[in-house]
What does this fold into?
Amino acid sequence: MVLRAQQPTVSQPGAPPAAQPEQPTNQAPGASGKAPPGAAGQTPGAAGPSQPAVPGQTGAATAPGAPLTLDLNAALQRARDYNQQFLNATIAVQLAHEDRVQAKAAYYPTLNWLNQYIYTQGDGTPSGVFVANDGVHVYNEQAAVHAELFSLTRRAEYRRAVAAEAAAKARQEIAQRGLAATVVQSYYAVITADRHLANARQSLAEAQRFLDITQKQEAGGEAAHADVIKAQLQVQQRQRDLQDAEVNIEKARLALGVILFPDPLQEYKIEEELRPDTPLPSLEEIRSEALANSPDVREAKAAAQQAHFGVASARGAYYPSLVLDYWYGIDANVFGITGPHGRQNLGSVAQGTVTVPVWNWGLTRSKVRAAELQEKQAQIDLTFTQRQLVANINGFYLEARAARDQLASLRSSAELSAESLRLTLLRYTAGEATALEVSDAQNTLAQARNAYDDGMARYAVGLANLATLTGRLP
It folds into this structure.
C-alpha cells in the first residue's frame, strides 16, 4: 500500500505538548488555526489563502515508476473515463443526436436513382405473356424525387427529437454529478482512513510509553502490578485498533480504486485536501446557482417539451398530408434516349398524392389522449423536481453549516483531551492518579482525534455536495 501519510510526533509523558505549526488566520467562523495537541504531523488546516469550495486542480507530477498521485479533480476525470453509467449516458446522448439527425432528414425531400431491367416471356405479342408489362424487354433508368410537402406529424417528430436530445444531455450531466458525489465520498474516506491510521499509531506509542512507566514504577515499588496489567491491556487494545485502521484504509483504497482504475490494485497516492479554513458560500448564492444550473430541472423541462410535441405529433394524424413524387429518366423497351422510329424515350412524370384521414375506429383519438396524459405526467414530474431541488439545496447547506460550526468544538475537545492526558500522567507519576484514569484519558484523546478528522471530512464532503449542486465541481 502506498499512501502519503506523515508520521506523528508524540511528546513525552509529563512534558508540555509539542509546538504546533502556525496556521493561517483566515479561518472559517468558529475554526481555530492550531492543530490539537498530541496530533503533530496531522495539520488540520492547510496553510495559504482560502480556496474555492472544492480545492484541488490537477494531479501532481509523478516521477517515472513512482505511484500515481491524484487530487480530487484528477480522480473525477479518471472516474469519468471508466464509469459504466457515465459512459452509457454519453452513448445515450450520441444516440439521441443521431435520432434528431434522422428526424430532420425525414423532413426534407429525398433523391434516388432507379436502375431496373424487366424481362417477360414472349408469346408473339408486343407485350409478352404478361399483359401488364409494356414489352418483352423493359428498361428503367430514372431519378426519383420524393417530398412530403405538408405533414404536421413529421414536423412535430423532429421537434420532439430535439427535445429528446436535450433531455439526454441533461441526463448525462446528472450521471456525471452522481458519479462526482460517489468519488468525493470515496476520496475523503481514504483521507480519513489515513488520518485514523496515524492516530492509531500515535495512540499505540502513548500506550507503550505508559506501559514503560508502570513497569519502571513497579520495579521501584511505587506502583502495583495491577497497573502494569492495565497498561498491557491498553497496549493490546491499541494494537488491535491499529490493525483495524490498516484494514480500513486498504478497504477505502480499494473502493476508490474500483472507480478510478481498470485494476483496483493500482498503486496511487492521494493529495490530502482537508481544509477547515475553506469559507462556506451564502445560502442565497448557492440557491441561485443551483436553480440556474440544475440538470435535473433541465431534463424535466426537456421531457415536458418532448411530451408536448408528442401530442402535436398525435394530432397531426387528424389532418391531410400532401406527398409529391417526380421521376425523370427512361421507361422503355429499348435502352436508349430514342426508340424505334425516333420516338423520345427520355422524359419526366410528376405525381401528387393527398391523403385525407376519414375513419379509423378512434385510433387517432386514443393516441392523442395517451399523449396528453404523458404530457400531464411530465408537468407533474417537472414540478416535483423543482421542489426536490429546493429541499436538497437547503438540506445540503444545513449539513455543511453544521459541520463547519462543529469544527471549533471538535478541535477544542482534541486540545482539552491532550491536555487532560498530560496532566493525568503527571498526577500518576506523582502518585495522585490511578492507571484507570490514565487509560480513560488515553481513550478520550484517541476518540477526540478521530472525531476531529471525521468533522473535517464531513465539512469537505458537505462543500463538495454544494459544489455539485451548483455545477462548480468539474
